[in-house]
């Protein structure tokens, strides 16, 4: 059965952890979906891992739509969520509705994700959910603010932790169906997870979240740099290099293709 936003809240109630990975094309999405991943996030991290930009800031809404369409074609069961890229939603709730509306209408994704909390983004989330667009929030380390925050852990002081908790509560009250908690201390993500009835999806936020997300190229060992909290489960850079070297050698030594005539 296809995953829905309502189902995620049930899973939180049942204590069933939610599995989330990022996706950016048809082939990867087919594999992740068939392997049973619950949510495929077309994260704007694709700016860095797929498009080679130094930060997530340059990726455009058009590029996100293009990748999300490809992902959607590979998916039968998972919920597909598309990140709204930098400056496609921050100007006004109207701009956010326009951008998120394009995601749902043009790609077939079921939800959008945006970064930030109280008060501005909570108002935007309220307006998006009021017109029927499911929204996933994202607080803590928000990479679209890299030039202010860097990639450092957030919420280490009591004040900062309290602010992030309040942001998460405001996003829940505005109608978000889930919230990503990125790179914050374990005890803070535990507090947030206990406080709000919607699922928290952690990345570098410890084991107490309702679900976990990683960037798929980090999980597969495809990335040329990785955050400290990522875990490679296979080294695809090595696997691919070996395969390509073998192909190259066979071509140069005229072993491929074999003569079948
Ligand atoms: O863009 C992304 O990949 C993300 C996840 C890391 C949550 O936002
Ligand atoms: Na993102």
UniProtKB/TrEMBL annotation:
One GO BP annotation of this record: pantothenate biosynthetic process
Record-linked Pfam families: Pantoate_transf
UniProt keyword Membrane, yes or no: no
InterPro entries per record: Pantoate_hydroxy_MeTrfase (IPR003700), Pyrv/PenolPyrv_kinase-like_dom (IPR015813), Pyrv_kinase-like_dom_sf (IPR040442)
Cofactors named for this entry: Mg(2+)
EC number, UniProt record: 2.1.2.11
Free-text remark on how the cofactor is bound: Binds 1 Mg(2+) ion per subunit.
Enzyme class: transferase
Pathway(s) where this gene product acts: Cofactor biosynthesis; (R)-pantothenate biosynthesis; (R)-pantoate from 3-methyl-2-oxobutanoate: step 1/2
UniProt subcellular location: Cytoplasm
Residues binding Mg(2+): 44, 83, 115
MF (Gene Ontology): 3-methyl-2-oxobutanoate hydroxymethyltransferase activity; magnesium ion binding; methyltransferase activity
Binding of 3-methyl-2-oxobutanoate, residues: 44-45, 83, 113
Catalytic center residues: 182 (proton acceptor)
Gene Ontology annotations for the cellular component aspect, listed alphabetically: cytoplasm
UniProt keyword terms in alphabetical order: Cytoplasm, Magnesium, Metal-binding, Methyltransferase, Pantothenate biosynthesis, Transferase
Catalytic activity: (6R)-5,10-methylene-5,6,7,8-tetrahydrofolate + 3-methyl-2-oxobutanoate + H2O = 2-dehydropantoate + (6S)-5,6,7,8-tetrahydrofolate
Family of this protein: Belongs to the PanB family.
Subunit structure, interactors included: Homodecamer; pentamer of dimers.
Its biological purpose: Catalyzes the reversible reaction in which hydroxymethyl group from 5,10-methylenetetrahydrofolate is transferred onto alpha-ketoisovalerate to form ketopantoate.
Name of the protein described by the UniProt record: 3-methyl-2-oxobutanoate hydroxymethyltransferase
Organism: Allocoleopsis franciscana PCC 7113
Gene: panB
